[in-house]
Amino acid sequence: MYIERMLTIKRVPTVVSNYQENASSEDLESKAGGCGRNCLGKCCLPVSKLPIYAFKNLEHEMVENGMDLSCGKGPPMSFLNNLLLGQWEERMSRGLFRYDVTTCETKVIPGTYGFIAQLNEGRHLKKRATEFRVDQVLQTFDDNKFNFTKVGQEEVLFRFEPSNDNEMHFFLSSAVDAASVSPSVVAINVSPIEYGHVLLIPRVLDCFPQRIDHESFLLALHLARETADPAFRVGYNSLGAFATINHLHFQAYYLSLPLPIEKASTCRLMTSKGPTNTGVMVSKLLDYPVSGLVFEGGCTLRDLSDAVSDSCVFLQNNNIPFNVLIADCGRRIFLLPQCYAKKQALGEVGQELLDTQVNPAVWEISGHIVLKRRKDYDEASEQYVWRLLSEVSLSEKRFQEVTHFIAEAAGFSQVEVDINANHQRGVPRATSHLHKDCLMQH
Asked: Which of 79, 351, 363, 367 could cross-link to 260 by cystine, CB 3.0-4.6 Å?
């Protein structure tokens, strides 16, 4: 099965943003002569005006069965979806990306799981190289290395902030008041994997290193919820799990096909405990090459967010690399501890897999594989993907140990696993707002 892209974007010669080149902070300052670079740094952002989307901050609102049933019902929830798509296409027409992702071939690999392969031959050469150690999940932010304060404001689509009155608002131009709270922004990923590929950068001026905290993760969950489109997924890579920039950020993009991980069977593993039952449920992935946990439910959005954040904080503090996928408009969250980079460093990964140069981060683990060579793309098979992702996964014994400690850290009770009670999850239920011509299956 093949997928053909039919975007309405007018192709123009690609130009590089003034702030995408590799350069030290001293080089940039000397070229700018002060704060005239129109960047996201403290020299320019506090005196700038940017569009702002202020979302309803309903983190404590009770939701039926732990789900926001307004997902996909249209305005005002779909306004953010349309805003993001329109602004992303406008940046595409201005040539602000390193390459034209709409020319990349994509296909569904034949087999039971429907893994998705994309051929992107130049991305690994044009993408920024990793600048830090891969054996430490927590590392100090280093202003001398590339970070998002050094990109130009032309790459920003809008600010993404909670509103003050629990109503949704959008302002085309709003002054940045960095004196009170550092702004959170949604910006293009200049090395995109898919249509609408963006970055969510929480409180950009605070220069957090790449680590999950409760408020930033809640912000990412709000983005998935507000966009209200199941084709839009939000992902996170920790250091050691193929994050390439040590500045806190989440990634997100649109894909109209269900990801293989979303279709995997699960069985109930943990439930919340204590005098205040939050209603969050945790399941284990079954019959999938990577061991992982699936969080869903919760009486409130904050309940679900805190359960995942507590688990991520435990992994970070214990130097266990991991990836996170927020799917189904924020209803389901996949937490995937991994060990591929460690195996790679120890020489435990086969040369055949290393030769493909695939770094299995959140999208690859979810079943969307970006391949760098025509040969690998043409010969891609379900067997190859299974072998690759199996190398990512913790051993069953190690996964059980990590799960036990996560249960303690996040306040869960483990339940007896009944493999016969597993269930198959279907395709996300919300209606996609993605343009029908964006991704077609033949």
From this structure: 367
Pairing between β-strand 198-201 and β-strand 185-188 as defined by DSSP bridges: antiparallel
Q: What's the length of the chain? A: 442
- Nearest C-alpha neighbor of 330 from the set 54, 63, 51: 63
Q: Which two tokens stand for residue 156?
A: 């920003």
| Average pLDDT in the chain | 84
Residue whose token pair is 């894909």: 255
Q: How many helices (H) and strands (E) does the chain have?
A: 11, 19
Supply the pLDDT for residue 37.
72
Question: Around 404, how many Cα atoms within 13 Å sit in the side-chain half-sphere?
Answer: 6
Query: Average pLDDT in the 300-327 region?
Result: 97
Residue 74 has pLDDT above 90, yes or no: no
Check residue 145 and report its DSSP letter: S
Q: Are 174 and 183 in contact (CB under 8 A)?
A: no
First to last CA, the chain: 6
- Active-site residue 247, yes or no? no
What is the three-class DSSP state of 33?
A: coil
Buried b (16+ CB within 10 A) or exposed e, 298-335: bbbbbbbbbbbbbbbbbbbeeebbbbbbbbbbbbbbbb
Q: What is the pLDDT of residue 333?
A: 98
pLDDT at 56: 87
Which one of the listed residues 222, 247, 249, 368 is annotated catalytic? 249
Q: d(Cα 340, Cα 343) in Å, to the nearest integer?
A: 5
Structure tokens belonging to residue 316: 């970070």
* Inter-residue contact 181 to 167 (CB < 8 Å): no
Q: How far is CA 129 from the centre of its chain?
A: 19
Q: What angle do CA 54, 59, 73 make, to 5 degrees?
A: 70
Q: Which two tokens stand for residue 214?
A: 């409760």
Q: What are the pLDDT digits (tens) for 217-264?
A: 999 999 999 999 999 999 999 999 999 999 999 999 999 999 999 999
% of the chain beyond a pLDDT of 70 = 78
Q: What residue type is assigned to position 161 of the chain?
A: E
Distance (Å) of CA 56 to CA 59, 62, 301, 313:
9, 14, 12, 26
pLDDT digits (tens, 9 = 90+) for 356-391: 999 999 999 999 999 999 999 999 999 999 999 999
- Can you tell me the distance from the alpha carbon of 244 to that of 210, in angstroms, rounded to the nearest whole number? 10
Query: Inter-axis angle of helices 396-410 and 301-317, to 10 degrees?
Result: 120
Q: Is-cis flag, bond preceding 76, omega within 30?
A: yes
**In a 3-state reduction of DSSP, which class is residue 54?**
strand
Residue with tokens 């690999």: 109
